[in-house]
Amino acid sequence: MAVNPGNAAAQALVNQLRGQGLSYAEIGRRVGRDSSLISQIARKGNKGASLVGALTQIQGGAKSVNVARRQTKTGQVANTRRGVKSIPGTSNIRVQTKRGNKTLLNGLDSVKGQGKYVKWRVAVTWLKTISDRIYKNTGIDGHLPAGWTSDTLARRIASPQAGDNWKAGDTRAALKEIALSQNQGKLTSAGAVQGVTLYTTD
Length: 202
Known about the structure:
This protein is 36% helix and 22% strand.
């Protein structure tokens, strides 16, 4: 099979950036792509042609480059990440997953830099109200705290701050805890997460 020159160039650029001390995650952050894609470009050389220009700019010292995503024939952003669906007629996305912390982060990453608002529903095994009533197999709704964007949420999940009751990268736990804090006048605690539905709005 013939080697795509663009993919080969992207592979060489990623490996050069790695040699300069940049991680896959950092390279991905600078070009707005997932670290797993950057790793695949470096290891297999079978993707990345569309990122050659951006990677060249990063090599030249750029801290961030906005790379347009592939579009469908109707002009919608193509679904390029597993579990992340474009909402027809908009630039927004919807993600539904039972266990996928990474899937949820991929969704947030797919709208990086767009200033999107985010809402979600976390399905849990039970919820306990302030009157000590327990509801089984239900859900709790959450949304971005005041002043946050989807980018803020992604950064906070990756790097929890004092008072955040979740481990770095545990997206489902973060969404559950934020939702609980937003319903603290009604709820006191919740059981294990069974799934999450997340979507963005303008």
